[in-house]
Amino acid sequence: MKSLRSPLGTVAGLGSAKSGVHHWWLQRLTSIALVPLTIWFTVSLLSLPSLDHVTVISWMAQSWTALLLILLVLVATWHSQLGVRVVVEDYIHNTGSRTLILVILTFVHAFLAVAGVFAILKVAFGGAA
Amino acid sequence: MRARPLSPHLSIYRMSRYSLLSSITNRITGVILSVGLLVLVYWLMAVASSNREYLRAHEILSSGFFKLIYAGLLIAFCYHLVAGIRHLTWDTGRGLERAQAKRSTYIVVAVTVLLVVVLGYWLFLAAGRAS
């Protein structure tokens, strides 16, 4: 059978980086995790008697709440980063602006993840007034 | 070198409009939810700050404008959740026949509407608050 590799590929001797489905797989993995996490968050938040500061702090300071909230923030920002990346790659065709937008989106997502986790930990460790 | 075909080569697809429409809606709702992450983190940072700061954020987050945003986020969340579960089912190779995809689109829309009504009632009416 004729090789499917291009002549350039044969000469350069470069093969697959074995990461072809990495992005796809992470998108699925994070989406599976987000099903229970987002349902828990919605039900848990809506079940609070009120949203005044004291109530929210005592809710967020519970170990399980803090733990699940951290997971939610990390997985949601990760999933979001993977998702908007594909959207940008698909619809922004100018290489320069595409790269620029991807860099900005990555920074924004990293900031959101760190800020969210920081806020939760601060409350969980009793740092909120 | 000849230009290689690039990702959404939409012109060669002959997807049924059901799966096409419901798939693009999944993307749009996903982007809306990404914006919602900003609101979530803003709220978390407010909780972690002082009592006065939280009150100020609470006032902003309880405004009519934000209630509109919550309504949008709620619809986007419900759709993205239900359609996402269908995408995960598709990934296992099930339900890809045209008739099945058409039927599951109706199911996705019906379950989404149901979820929006239940959660919307809980959020806006039963709890008597929205933030």
How would you describe what is shown here?
The complex is a heterodimer of chains A (129) and B (131). Chain A is mostly helical and 129 residues long. Helix content of chain A is 76%, strand content 0%. Chain A contains five helices and no strands. Chain A has helices at 7-12, 22-46, 53-60, 63-91, 95-124. Chain A is elongated. With 131 residues, chain B is mainly α. Chain B has four helices and no strands. Chain A binds chain B through residues 28, 31-32, 34-35, 38-39, 42, 46, 50-53, 56-57, 60, 69, 73, 76-77, 80, 83-84, 87, 89-90, 112, 115-116, 118-120, 122-123, 127-129, and chain B through 7-8, 27, 30-31, 33-34, 37-38, 40-41, 44-45, 47-51, 54-55, 58, 77, 81, 84-85, 87-88, 91, 119, 122-123, 127, 129, 131.
Largest interface: A-B, 37 and 34 residues
Main sheet record of chain A: none
Helix/strand-derived category of chain A reads mainly alpha
Q: How many helices of chain A?
A: 5
What is the typical, i.e. mean, pLDDT of chain A?
A: 92
Radius of gyration of chain B: 19 Å
Q: Give the CA-CA distance, first to last residue of chain B.
A: 56 Å
Morphology of chain A: elongated
User: What's the β-strand tally of chain B?
Assistant: 0
Largest sheet of chain B: none
Question: How large is the share of residues in beta strands of chain A?
Answer: under 5%
